[in-house]
Amino acid sequence: MSEWVSRHCHLSGVGRKLIDRLTLGMKLLLEYRDSNENALSHVSCLVNLSQFFYRCSRYDLYRDYIFKLYEYQLSHGARVEAAYCLQKMGQTLEFDHLGFTEEWSRKLFPAASTQAEVKELIIAATTELMDEAKLRHDAIEQCKMLEAYYLELREFDQLSDVLRLR
């Protein structure tokens, strides 16, 4: 379709980029729809879709597909990969105290109501998964993020807990 549009329409560079992006997005979604039979293909499609939405700065959709990948990895016992999925999700969040209600966050952390709470719980879950997988260096890096956050908030009880864990 993109080729047809290029030949028959005189679009500006921005219009052409939009058509190309939409074409790629639809192609990736169709591949994902058809990938359920093959596990490797399914994972590959989830990764490709998440990267596409990240490049489009649609972090909400990026997190949705990373969460699907997290669930898939966890259901297949790939705890290290699941931890890295959580880490990727957390990297797109801020310690912001505004409301946060993305569907995956309600499923994973039903009591969390702000982006800061979700990010805090993601970091804690990531740390736990990495510690179980004996990826201590990565777990310590996660702890350092929580330490800085708790220091900023002057939450010394929680800071003490994180330091003990580290």
CATH homologous group name of the domain at 79-166: DOCK DHR2 domain, lobe A
Radius of gyration: 19 Å
Strand segment tally: 0
Poorly predicted regions are none
Q: So what's the oligomer here?
A: single chain
Per CATH, what is the topology of the domain at 79-166?
Answer: Serine Threonine Protein Phosphatase 5, Tetratricopeptide repeat
Largest sheet: none
- The backbone outline, from C-alpha atoms, is globular
Estimate the strand proportion.
under 5%
CATH class of the domain at 79-166: Mainly Alpha
Structural class: mainly alpha
Percent range for helical residues?
Answer: over 70%
Arithmetic mean pLDDT: 81
CATH architecture of the domain at 79-166: Alpha Horseshoe
Helical stretch tally: 9
What does it look like?
With 166 residues, the chain is mainly α. It has a domain at 79-166: DOCK DHR2 domain, lobe A (Serine Threonine Protein Phosphatase 5, Tetratricopeptide repeat, Alpha Horseshoe). The chain is 77% helix and 0% strand. Helix 7 runs antiparallel to helix 8 (136-153). The longest helix is centred in the first third of the chain and has 21 residues, at 13-33. The mean pLDDT is 81.
Topology:
Blueprint: H1 2-8, H2 13-33, H3 39-55, H4 59-75, H5 79-91, H6 103-108, H7 115-132, H8 136-153, H9 156-165
Helix pairs in contact: 2-3, 3-4, 4-5, 5-7, 7-8, 8-9
Task: Supply the key terms.
Serine Threonine Protein Phosphatase 5, Tetratricopeptide repeat, globular, 9 helices, 166 residues, mainly alpha, single chain
